[in-house]
Amino acid sequence: MLPISSPSGPLTASSRFYKICAQVLLPSFRRHQTTARRTRSRLNIKPDASFLPTKTEQHDHIIFNPPPSMPNVYHTPNIFLPKNDQRKIQKSSSQQLPPPMPKQPEKRYHLTETDLAEMRSLRSQDPLEWSVKKLAKKFNCSNLFVMFVTEKLAGQKKEQQEQVTALVKSRWSDKKRIAREDRDVRKEKWFSDA
Prior knowledge:
The two termini are 69 Å apart. The protein is mostly helical.
């Protein structure tokens, strides 16, 4: 096989074949000259004046070159402001600590078995009058504690509430009943993939 001459030197048929394959079959692996570095060096773009070293100062210094935008006092970092600058004083005074968190009340175990029995009996006698909130206020404890103590009695209250709800629903018009049923269907669809 005869070598083919090129400006860089002779090319053999096999090296020419690999070069054609690289140009045709693998264009994504070629390096393009569209990178910023090559563009800058080709166009010979000078850097911004703020990045150039000053001719008057001989020592090294920090270069602060914020992005081009509207001038804003908040853009100037605190380190670049003089000590007696008014903006620095305002920034430090506005950065006060938030108020302290209130102390959590200590848990009290002041209720006896007789108090718990009285709480259950009041709730079982009249659950509408002796609500969880009212019992918690009377015995000076949390609503959650009252619900734990009177948990077994919650079934009676639930039955009464269901009867009241059924009575209210029986007075609904057809239009309102259909609207409520549609709302329930929409809520069920929230949790399904359909």
